[in-house]
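Weekly sync notes, structure subgroup
Attendees: PM, AL, DS (notes)

Item 1: joint prediction request from the bench team. They want all two components modeled as one assembly rather than separately. Inputs as received:
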Amino acid sequence: MSVLSGSWTEVLYLVAAVCFILALKGLSGPKTARRGNLIGAGGAVVGLLVTFLAFDLDHIPLILLAIVVGSALAVPAARRVQMTQMPQLVALFNGVGGGAAAVVAILELAAIGAGGDATSDRGNLAAVAFTVLVGSISFSGSCVTFAKLQELMTTRPVVIPGAAPLLVGGLVFSVGIAVWLFAVGQLWLGLLLLVLGLAVGVMVVLPVGGADVPIVISLLNAFTGLTVAAGGFVLHNTLLLVAGTLVGASGTILTREMASAMGRSVGGVMFGALRGGSTAGSTAISDRPVKSVTPDDVAILLGYARKVIVVPGYGLAVAQAQHTIRELAEQLEAKGIEVAYGIHPVAGRMPGHMNVLLAEANVPYEALKEMDEINPEFKTADVVLVVGANDVVNPAAKTTPSAPIYGMPILEVADAQQVIFLKRSMRPGFAGIENELLYDPKTSLLFGDAKDSLTKVLSAVKAL
Amino acid sequence: MSGVALLAIFVLAVFVGFEVVSKVSSTLHTPLMSGANAIHGIILVGAVIVAGEAENGLELAVGLFATVLATVNLVGGFVVTDRMLEMFKGRRPAAGDPKGGAR
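Output from the run, pasted for the record:
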């Protein structure tokens, strides 16, 4: 027996939908972001409660059990994940959402078929076809991005021979099956479409290079949003429709902004490798001479500078060296040296990722400068300390049209008097290309784990 | 609700979605993406409905599976976003205090 009338259900769904709009609005500003997220969670609770009260549902104990199981899986993962691994967790959460939407649509298709004439509601079938196809693409695509970011597989673009025709063929075939499903509404076509979607999702993401994966996560996020919106059409559920559409639309904007922050086009990211454009580069270790220095040398360079700019990258995060770099910066500031952090928009593995990591280490917000703000300052810096970053300072982005990162705005560290790289090895960065700056006469390299190196530099600076 | 009414809602929601996230600093891209990711976890509502209306064991099992997946998306999404934003917030009072004292 349903407790709520149809009108009340719609009104309360509207309340939940408004919560989601306010959540996105809040998340767009630094001061309101956390509250926005909580409002979103509140909207989700309202929407869920209303659903339990408004529909005549069976198996409620089992459903509640499933929700408990899901929460038990998700909460510890979300609480305990290292902030460095957070991008792949978001990818995984996105994938399971898309998968859930595809499964819901399949079940609804079965229900429509059991109810007699499946073809009586064309709009419904179109929405089912869309949900199944895009939801399964989002699921398998997200699984591949997860594997890439977790480095379960190579982060370099994977292009199998004949990938482009295979992908185009797969897409055309999938759309054909979707149209057929739309025409006859049979369950087996839905299941076939599910399998095809899974295959297409893998084929779409495999050729994307590691550095571009965040853009793909964002794009798949928007896809899942649209899938959920189509699920709203299928179930005639306005909350799903509004929430899914909001995410689809805002996710599209966000994807474009991320891509432009990296100087890439979304089309280039997705299909660049298939056209054979962006696979340049090598993982080979060069044997050209570099100037390798000791922690004491670095301490002297830093200790007698007037202005130091730190450029943190993913290597800093992996080594969990956020706290050590903050200590070093404080030590230098105590000596009257000006210290700033130059944060590339895509430092780390995702736009804004580095800000999250440094915030975790209590680096003051004011010391973090965005690229446009810091670039003119490199000219006046005595020393730039590049910690575990590579691609975001690689001049190849300006000089080598064949490089995968060509066109990406970079931090102009070459303008500074001295550049010190803290690196684990001469291995190229995530994008798999060599960095000319490493061989520049003004560059010194300190090899080793970022945290070890920084700890040694820190004690050497203290001893000065 | 008729298909046309649903379509109208869809179109309006597209514009709202475009509008609310315009001009976001790159600092907030990751939390915003993560938050939007949590919001589409509301597919849980759909999963609950199909599981609750299942007519045989197989449909129920599949529906419950979808419910678990959707819960992971929804709950995990909000929790991880909150954890990210907690870090942004942590030193904000500390940064504000000295200014307050100087006034």
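Discussion: The radius of gyration of chain A is 25 Å.
Action: AL to compare against the crosslinking data before next sync.
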